[in-house]
Amino acid sequence: MANHHGDFLWYELLTSDADAAAHFYGAVIGWQTRAAEGSDRDYRIFGIDNEDVGGLMALPASAERAGMRPTWLGYVAVDDVDATADAIVRAGGKQHMPPADIPGVGRFAMLADPQGVTFYVMRGARDGTSTAFDQSQFAHCNWNELATSDPAAALAFYKAQFGWEKGDAMPMGEMGEYRFINHRGQTIGAVMRRVPDGPPPAWTFYFSVEDIDVAAKAVTGNGGTIHYGPAEVPGSVFIIVASDPQGAMFGLVGPRKA
What dotted CATH number matches 8-124? Predict the structure, then answer.
């Protein structure tokens, strides 16, 4: 596996309507969707220009009964899935799915940090580097943003488990600070305090688009909802935070061309 311990290497949408979600993200981001080869379940792959970016599957009935709603989850590469899962539980996290193998794909586990934010860890079975997170290409994940109840504790947790480093910060007034996350010399995202009375702690993943206004129109025109933006951020680009028609939250980032 060419990805390093602590890299984001995959993104997965759990949804209540896979067909509708495939259509929505195709219209908004330009992804093509295909069935995963050799899968014994209806697992689909989001891709662009022959590069895979993420996965799509129906929200398991057991997860829905437990209160889980449509959501995007990230996979973090680790050197040893079992050891990492054990360490996360010892550090106050939770194990939702124990380590298991996906034949030909890799070994993975679904976990949660001490603030309750769910994510996967994975050790790939194949050589090669995932480009699902690639800040140089459109239609790939560009930014990983954690909104949490305790930013300082979350940063300490992820540093201990994945080696992520605390970067610079931007002040956000009463909301505290927007603290960047660095990994192997690259700024991969940020941590912030969740909005009071807002959604529960969660990761939001921002996918890059070629024109933020065109993408925003595609969101609302295809049944999604924009909750914030378009708003300018450093780098002369704009972001929106939105939810798809099934309620999964996601972000978009790109230039304004008009």
Answer: 3.10.180.10
Do 8-124 and 141-254 agree at the fold level?
yes
Query: What pTM was estimated for this model as a whole?
Result: 0.95
Is 196 exposed, middle or buried (CB count within 10 Å of its CB: 0-12, 13-18, 19+)? exposed
The class of domain 141-254 in CATH terms is alpha beta
As given in the structure block, the two tokens for residue 106 are 């890799």
Closest by CA position to 124, among listed 146, 97, 98, 106? 106
What residue segments make up the domains of the chain, in order of their start? Answer: 8-124, 141-254
Label residue 40 by pLDDT band (50, 70, 90). Answer: low
Write down the number of H helices and E strands in the chain: 5, 16
Separation of alpha carbons 32 and 9, rounded Å: 19
Distance CA 221, CA 134 (A): 27
How far apart CA 28 and CA 244 sit, in angstroms, is 10
Among residues 180, 223, 254, 258, the alpha carbon closest in space to that of 20 is found at: 223
Tell which phi-psi region holds residue 174, choosing left (phi > 0), alpha (psi between -120 and 50) or beta: alpha
Q: Which contacts of 229-237 are long-range, i.e. CB under 8 A and separated by 24 or more positions?
A: 230/256, 232/256, 234/170, 237/212
The residues, any chain, with a CB within 8 Å of residue 150's CB and separated by 6 or more, are: 114, 115
* Strand 118-124 relative to strand 71-77, pairing: parallel
pLDDT at 1: 47
Which pairs count as long-range contacts for 32-38, CB under 8 Å and 24+ apart, including other chains?
A: 38/103, 38/104
Tens of pLDDT, residue by residue over 62-98, are 878 888 899 999 999 999 999 999 999 999 999 999 9
